[in-house]
Backbone:
């Protein structure tokens, strides 16, 4: 698993979890979905993503995300 695919997995799981928590617990969890969306926009514009930094430090290889 590469850094790029792991980032997609992490973000997908977090978004799904926040939506499910909003449905079954409290709609306040939708703030998590919104924050993740804002972070994705910020990361696409600046190239800075803390998850990528952590994944690189643990040694995951970098490859093209959809190759």
Residues:
């Amino acid at each position: 698993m590469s850094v790029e695919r792991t980032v997609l997995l992490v973000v997908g799981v977090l978004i799904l979890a926040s939506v499910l928590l909003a449905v079954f617990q409290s709609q306040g969890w939708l703030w998590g979905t919104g924050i993740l969306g804002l972070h994705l926009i910020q990361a696409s514009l600046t190239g800075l993503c803390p998850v990528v930094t952590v994944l690189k430090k643990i040694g995951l290889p970098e490859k093209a995300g959809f190759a």
Q: What stands out?
A: Helices lie at 3-24, 30-46, 50-57. The chain has a mean pLDDT of 92. DSSP finds three helices and no strands in the chain. The CA atoms of residues 25 and 37 lie 21 Å apart.
